[in-house]
Amino acid sequence: MNTFRKQIAPALAALLFAAGIAHGQDAAGSAAILQQLRAFQETAGVLMVAAHPDDENTQLLAYLARGRNYRTAYLSITRGDGGQNLLGPEFGEELGIIRTEELLGARRIDGAQQFFTRAIDFGYSKDYEDTLKIWGHQEVLSDVVRVIREFRPDVIITRFSTEPSRTHGHHTASAVLALEAFKAAADPKAFPDQHLAAWQATRIVMNRGGEGDNVIQMEISGTDPVTGDSLSGLSGRSRAMHKTQGFGRGTGGGVGGGGGGQRVGPRPESFVLLGGSPAKKDIMEGIDTTWARYPGGADIDRLAEEVIAGFDPKNPAASVSGILAIRTKLAAIAAADPIVDAKRRLLDKALQGCFGLSVSTTMADAEVVPGETMRLRHTALVTGPKPVKWLGVRYPSISRETKGEIALKRGEPGTREASEILPTNTPVSQPYWLREEPTAGMYQVADPTLIGRPENPSAFPVEQVFDVGGQMLVIPDEPVKVISRGTEAENGRVAVERLEVIPPVSLSCGFGVRLFSPGGTKRVSVEARAYRAATKGVLRLEAPAGWKVEPAEQPLELQQVGDHATISFNVTAPAEAATAALVARAEVNGVQYSNQRIEIRYPHIPPILLQPTAQVKAVDVELACTAKEIGYLPGAGDSVAEALEEMGCHVVKLSGADLTSEKLGRYDAVVIGIRAFNVRADLPDHVAGLADYASAGGTVIVQYNTPNGLLTPRLAPYMLRLNGDLPRYRVTDENAPVKLLVPDHPVFNTPNKIGPGDWEGWVQERGLVFASEWDTEHFTPLIACSDAGEPPLEGGLLVAKYGNGYFVYTGLAWFRQLPAGVPGAYRLFANLVSLGK
User: Fold this and answer.
1) Domains and CATH numbers, the chain
2) Which residues pair with 181 in a beta bridge?
């Protein structure tokens, strides 16, 4: 995930037009510098731990980070990749990346840092012990310990109880892990392979209400000293970033609650002690938050206090000598201490602000193929009165440095032009946690130093080196492309994209599943698109033993950037049912590439470029489907329509205006996308048209909706209700036994005979939002299933005969099973759309 967009403040408009973009001046202005100095003076740290994006208490984060100037961070155990997406079709890994960007956007607003473990959000869990089993208890605990040892918080805050309850199993597991890690991080014998110093936080508390001696009450209202905004307002804007979950769109979601709105006035918060030193009035009680905690730190504290007291907002440069004195003292403090390192970076940022020093590294094209030459333009601008010498530029990843002193003149940008080669062994850009095949519960990461990070470091880091007042100042930088245009540039704000490492050609196999009959042959096409001119080589489609691909390779030749070609192979499936990954691979100039290109764009987050392996899941299965024409009304986003196309159906996307018996009469079945009754304003006025269509002989299939936020209570021509107790009406175990209640029903017999094997290999869950009540005279429940120890649920697949046709409500998770290539799900869904045909 190397693509990002960063907004730069109007104060740097001069540099924008002179040099492109300034790096490192996000919060320009005297108020920001003063806040950085105050934050430097505070050495305390707080780490909040919960399970998902949106679980965090955003007002508490804003209060701790901006109100009290503590190092503050949120550790989300997962990236939210198992949830639903209210904005579009992305699920799984793609949704996790979107939610990563949403969290990073939220942290830019509330001022905290963001961490993750490698744990996969595998969907709703009712048992925290099962959750830990799927994740791998020791693996995920190791990640939490690593974050604690690297961040070194004084206080750890959980958002949930360690006691099992009816909440999400991930929630309870996050608290259990936090408490275990609170102890394990302090044990030098625990996880010695991390090669990190042990760290003992002073206490761990739960941010929930309670009574008794162990409860701490705190007031967390206030204002941001930089912007003057209320912390409540910041909290609301931070929370509104979680738009894939309905926040910021007039709807709610998740359980994070705290700080979800913009409440004005007092804001009390409660904390229950879980471990460590007791406290009565404040979570920081008894903790030395000053530099006195370090030998020799008292002098730093005194000097910082003097600089802050004497800071002149109209003349920040007057504080330079004081900050340089602090830097001299700081050089003698615990060189390898992560807290001190973080404070050094913060002090350098304040120093940079006092000089009015901005730097940038720009390039004409942010997408580079390994081995290509990058033409870089380095720019430095000083707007303050103090002299600055620009000593050179370092490129750490290639161990190169360009030297040459440039005396910067106030208000006049200095520039350096450079041509550097991106090493040929630079990996293609892809989020670090998605580069290897995951287990069921954990992403695999080859480089352990990346674990915990929210996103990839720069593919080609840059360091700008300066002499400021006789001391060396190194400013981290990276190459970017300026993409501002229109009103952004007119308003003095610019946007940039980070360097992306790309292959010269991208490959795509289309929809991720291809269906084969046993022993049958199909043409599988690969689209190749050139991102460099004169791309020439060969293309192969690799398959495992038992599958036959002809020809073995095809020539590939694309002349111009943007040229594309569709190249086909004949693939023959084995005689026995099987599944396989067919991987497309191009060889260009002796280098093999197997990357597809996925671009994700939403206005509230930066553009995202993903380059996963170009492959298709081949499913060898006996499948018949008598329905040929399908109308599909999209909901919140899924790829069920593409799955129907793969089944041999012709699918037409519908709108609410198409839902009349006259327009629908041509279709064998009409399928309603997930959450359509939650998100489609054009649906409520046309529900009657669906009933008329069914009465005339059609089949209507309504996939799951959520009871909260229904735009109409009428989901079917007969009474059908959904209960707000969502955990009670879902089956989270994808392997839960399924009982056929009406074995001779056509859904289980025509055109495919459904047997026990068709319920095998399902992913993540059986289903969600099963119906809770229905008209028993007309709806027939066809299956019963449940999670272990719970009563059977019969609302997962309901079929009603309506006039000459059928009306179906199903909470089974087709939107997960069909894109995952689950054979039995295809066979059963084929039977549903084929009802009466």
Assistant:
1) 45-283 (3.40.50.10320), 505-620 (2.60.40.10), 629-833 (3.40.50.880)
2) none
